Amino acid sequence: MQYWLLKTEAETYSWDDQVKKGIGGWDGVRNARAAAYLKRMEVGDLAFFYHTGKEKRIVGVVRVVTPAYPDKSDATGKFVMVDVETVAPFKTPVTLKEIKADPQFADMQLARIARLSVQKVEPEQWSTIRNMGGLK
Q1: pTM over 0.85
Q2: Which CATH number fits domain 3-132: 3.10.590.10, 3.40.30.10, 3.40.190.10, 3.90.228.20?
């Protein structure tokens, strides 16, 4: 089991959009490092759903349901996407400000490389943030 964080602009694709779809494609990733993370994802991996932009907060959890496949929105055929299904909303969203203020997250990619749209999350970080969000 691996853990991830997927970032999206709430105005473009929000948690509510994901919930309505149930299963949605995570496409449009054009950063090479983020795309490499998509390629490493396995079916069953879990990811935090993060609203960037004005909100800057983790709002829920999704599960990877397909391995990486060619991104339909990429005419070059160079980039990939995965499909994710809705798992659960956070009872209390966890903000970037909270994460940056907590020393235990000092090495978390979200605290250090905030612009990367797909990020790896370590198991200890995953567990703590889930608890902060009200999930067990």
Answers
A1: yes
A2: 3.10.590.10
